[in-house]
Amino acid sequence: MEIKQLQALVTVAEVGSITKAAALLHLVQPAVTRQIRALEDELGVDLFERTRQGMRATPAGVAMVERARRALTELERARAELRPRADHVTGIVTVGLLESVLDVVAAPFTAAVTRRHPGIELRLLTAYSGHLQQWLDAGDVDLSLLYNMRSTSSVHARPLLHEAMWAVAPPDAGLRTDEPVDLAALARHPIVMPVAGHGLRVIIDQACARATVSLDVAVETNSMRLQKQLVIAGYGWTILPSAGVADDVARGILSAAPVSAPTMSRLVVLGRQRSGRIPPAVETVAHELVEVIHSVVASGAWPSAELIEGGPTRDGSVVREGARIRTPVYDPVDA
């Protein structure tokens, strides 16, 4: 099994065509066909079905493509890590970011890594916590922000902060971030909800069960962006993490208030695989991410967040100014 065969396999699977794959690989079409056939002969299975629509991976092909892509990624990371660069940590680091924290974390985090560590190639993937956890388990990301997750045998979860959930409404509702809204009052309005099974939906459903409150669900969606758009359009109120709406509230697009009676919050953690050697580049990026999060909370840009004791900054101290800090309290939810 050769690297060029794995490259051909992955490329054909991605584009669905021998001809297109050959163009991308700068090879002639027969060469790509030979590489695929040689791989099939070695494995003793068909990796593709030849259809009128193009090349479609068989179940065996799908499994092989997944592993081949991971192997090629590891080789690429090794080359980047070992490439000599004077006075620089080098390597490729893939980081998972929750969709709900992009507005407050993505830009300062990217700026910190690119400015301080030019030898690191940063790759950012965004998704919901459940998907990010799957990618972390599979090795598709090196580290990831997750929420309401304990450490497992395969993943170490470092608690970073507790974040309040906010009731979110159109501007004319007059919600204020310094005046909490009871869940019972929120229930008097139609609600735009995350779909059943979504991590945020689990938090909301658990709070409703504790308060014996039933919400009038108008619409369900798996998109935080769509939740906000539907609220703006007048289809109801919604409930979201503070980081996901802070910018919209500041710009007057939405109004929001912390949910009370009962309060709702989530625990944001930094997840990282336990197994194998942790490259210096991954360690470096993890440190930068934690430092940026502490700085963002301290500045007030991440409202209703409470830092958890023990998070280091560059000088080894814990950021305290402008943010409350408390010791970890676990309330795990399967996200």
Question: Could you walk me through the main structural features you see in this protein, from its secondary elements to its overall organization?
Answer:
Belongs to the LysR transcriptional regulatory family. It comes from Mycolicibacterium monacense. Required for the induction the katG gene for catalase. Involved in the response to hydrogen peroxide. GO terms for molecular function: DNA binding; DNA-binding transcription factor activity. This is Probable hydrogen peroxide-inducible genes activator. The structure is a single chain. The protein has 335 residues and is an alpha/beta fold. 42% of the residues lie in helices and 25% in strands. The strands form two sheets. Strands 3, 4, 5, 6, 7, 8, 9, 10, 11, 12, 13 and 14 form a twelve-stranded mixed β-sheet that branches. Strand 1 and strand 2 form a beta hairpin. Helix 2 packs across helix 3. The radius of gyration is 23 Å and the shape is globular.
